[in-house]
Amino acid sequence: MADQARLFRIKSSQLPDAVGITMSFEHEEKSRDIVPDSLPKDSLVRYRRLGVQTNSDGIITVGQRMQEWMKRTWNQTEFILLPNSHPFIKLIVASFHSEDHSGVDTTLAKLRSRYWIPGVRRIIKLVKKRCIICRKREKKIVGQQMGMLPIERLQPAPAFYYCAVDLFGPFMIRDTVKKTNTW
């Protein structure tokens, strides 16, 4: 994985171009058996409910069935469909996660604003689990331990043989006529 990460080092400004190039390559690699409308056979079957189509750049997108809703809510008409098994996806998820080290749902919402990655929640959880900054933020703090018991409490004794009273005060009490101290 370290070798793969070294190969994919990019700047955040290069991310959209890198995703497009990588996904075009990935889709070309997987689409050797082409169906008539130039989509891989498995994408038609597996994602047909999402409205799979190929855009003008040759990238597989989803959202054909819900374009109006996507335009109103996400200000887009399609999402890029990315395969969850590609090593580049972990880098994209890590990039979105490292912006603010937020939770799984926030990272998922950021990803879904541009990409559609099936099963990405599991990948986000994995990235968050391996993130050192998140581990430091969410570590469990050791609670206070109780002090040692006095020897009197450890030995058997009759009821009320040892008795303790907590005292605090004096408190100044103001009556309608006079002030008094009380314990």
Could you explain how this protein is built, in words?
- The structure is a single chain.
- By secondary structure, this protein is an alpha+beta fold.
- It is built from nine helices and six strands; from the N terminus they run αααββαβααβαααββ.
- The strands form two sheets. It has a four-stranded mixed sheet. Strands 5-6 form a two-stranded antiparallel sheet.
- α5 packs across α7 and α6 crosses α7.
- The N terminus is likely disordered.
- The chain folds into two domains: 136 residues, Endonuclease III, domain 1; 32 residues, no CATH class.
- The radius of gyration is 31 Å and the shape is elongated.
- This is Integrase zinc-binding domain-containing protein.
Number of helices: 9
Number of domains: 2
Average of the residue pLDDT scores: 76
Name of the CATH first level of the largest domain: Mainly Alpha
Which oligomerization state do the chains in this entry correspond to? single chain
Instruction: Report low-confidence residues grouped into runs of 5 or more.
Output: 1-7, 31-38
User: How far from one another are the termini?
Assistant: 70 Å
Structural key phrases:
single chain, 183 residues, alpha+beta, Endonuclease III, domain 1, 2 domains, four-stranded mixed β-sheet, two-stranded antiparallel ribbon, 9 helices, 42% helix, disordered N terminus
In short:
InterPro entries: Integrase_H2C2. With 183 residues, the chain is α+β, with helices and mostly antiparallel strands.
